[in-house]
Amino acid sequence: MRVLEDSEKVEVSKTSNTVSSWAAYFKGFISFGHRATVTEMSHARSDDSSDPNRADCLGQVDRLLRSPMLQGSEALCKLLQYLAHHTLNSPADHLKEYQIGTEVLGRPADFDPQSDSSVRMQVGRLRTKLIEYYNSAGVRDSILVDIPKGRYTLSFERRIFAPQQEAIRDVVVHPPASASAQRRWMLAGLAVLAIACAALWIQNHSMQQSMSAMQRSFYPWHYEPSVSAFWSDILGARPDTDVVMADSSFSLVQIISKKSFSFQDYLSRSYIGQLQTQQDLNPDMRSALNLIAAKNLESSSDFRLARRILALDPLGQHIHLYYAREFMPTLLKQDNVILIGSPIANPWDELFESRLTFNATLNNGTPTFITNRAPAAGEQSSYIPTGSVGYCTVAYLPNPDHNGSVLLLEGTGSEATEAAGDFLLSEDQLSNFQRMLHVTKLPYFDVLLKTSQVKGTPLSTTLVAYRTYPNLH
Q1: Which domain of life is it from (predicted)?
Q2: Which residues, at least 6 apart from 401, have a Cβ–Cβ distance to it below 8 Å?
Q3: What are the structural domain ranges in the chain?
Q4: Distance between CA 97 and CA 78 in Å, rounded?
Q5: CA 351, CA 212: separation in Å to the nearest integer?
Q6: Residue 114 CB: number of other CB atoms within 10 A?
Q7: What tens digit of pLDDT does each residue of 125-162 get?
Q8: Which residues contact 325 (CB under 8 A, 6 or more apart)?
Q9: Distance between CA 25 and CA 189 in Å, rounded?
Q10: I need a labelling partner for 259 at 20 to 30 A (CA). Which of 17, 148, 329, 443 fits?
């Protein structure tokens, strides 16, 4: 059954009121000659307006932790418990971003809130989840929990519901008319009702067409069968999907210093200290590299791709954008994850490299190329880009706990990485891939693509090789 939107309800209500008015008018000519008293009772209830006590607050926090909105997010549950503990036990202490980042989110001791906004993003996510809860499952809860903007503390407020009210009104009943007059009025009333119903049907049909057009403009990908089947399977399986942008600063540091750093070096930020002790770098170069490492640089191609993925969820309820340096390991276990960029720029890829056949590789500062770890007949062991030709890989895998999905979009350059995203957002390319595999639902896969390109823009894409992993489902 389709649920009417608020705008539809208003219009339908107007027409319904017109019909009800005519019906009430004609009813007077066929009713009995006496006065009737009608009592309307409201079902709203009233609550105690006093401030909630500690036990009430803890009970509400426990109810939130057990709600479907938060049960799938270990990090948000931990953050809510931490904020509740400090609010109720140490209300005079003002929490700082650094304290939350290191004690709750697992950030290292050198965590810098000025360059790492992970605390603000997680608090924002928690605030959004609280709003969703009180608009759905918690609509009748007696205590409101909120996070005031600009503060890292909770507010507890008792909700006041409207008191029970009685409204007494008199209905004036007219004396009966003659039988012929009653028939004439009944026929006239039926005619008016028929006209009103026809007008209501026409109006409702017009609204349905408008809503359908609006739905299509907001979610055009729902009307592309292969794209819809693939993305609906991902976005519908988990409550959240995280898009993780590449860190171009990290790739520049490695290219200039001609030294590769591991995922652990990146996660702990220890690579910055290693640059300062690298013997073949003069003081000016060390200073320049340190300045680059402190910046959060991104490519325009990566931003275009991220924007297209975010457009799959135009209301911004379930897809979230992260920079690579802000992302956290706990989110890999509870969310779907989309990693944009090769390992040199997005070191989170390193966690999945051993499971891939095709890898984007950097060797001593040379341009990134694609390594084929297990070449089949007719395939090359490596694919090296040129000025007008690039290569990219698209991997679709389960996350480490097999309760979500991971997409890795890697390229030999930013244009090639954007082409990897085109593959997943193109009805033609996905449907052709489905027909090639003779399947209606795509299994987990690893794909190598060749792309023609000009600077800043991929032009066309050709499938070079692929592997499928149906046993991982």
Answers
A1: Bacteria
A2: 333
A3: 54-158, 223-246+298-468
A4: 15
A5: 42
A6: 7
A7: 888 888 888 888 888 898 999 998 888 889 999 887 76
A8: 115, 116, 247, 250, 266, 296
A9: 9
A10: 329
